[in-house]
Design goal:
Blueprint: H1 4-32, H2 43-66, H3 78-106
Length: 109
């Protein structure tokens, strides 16, 4: 007998990757906006693009594990923690870049 609680762990990674691919597409469009307007500051968005790319890779690995295509022996569970650490580091660096840009261009006296 399947219950909602037993179905969520197997379907959640599929929803995560679907929504991440939508974000990936939107970020690609945003980064390509730079071709039209050279004054657009998109450096932090490139870091977000890298973080979303790593998240899509992490979710793909999770989906392969859920459906049994790969095992924990091939890619151990701690590998997901490495991905998440890299994602958080990219987020922090993205925020620092944006703060520096705003401080330099809008609050300089």
């Amino acid at each position: 007998m399947t219950t909602t609680a037993s179905c969520i762990p197997s379907i959640a990674p599929v929803y995560n990757i679907a929504l991440s691919l939508i974000v990936f597409y939107l970020l690609t469009k945003l980064i390509l906006l730079r071709r039209k307007n050279k004054n657009v500051f998109i450096k932090p968005w490139k870091y977000l693009f890298a973080a979303v790319s790593i998240f899509v890779l992490e979710e793909a690995i999770t989906i392969f594990k859920v459906f049994g295509y790969i095992s924990d022996a091939i890619i151990p569970r701690w590998f997901n923690a490495v991905f998440e650490l890299i994602i958080v580091a990219l987020f922090v660096y993205m925020l620092i870049e944006q703060i520096n840009h705003v401080g330099k261009n809008y609050y300089s006296e």
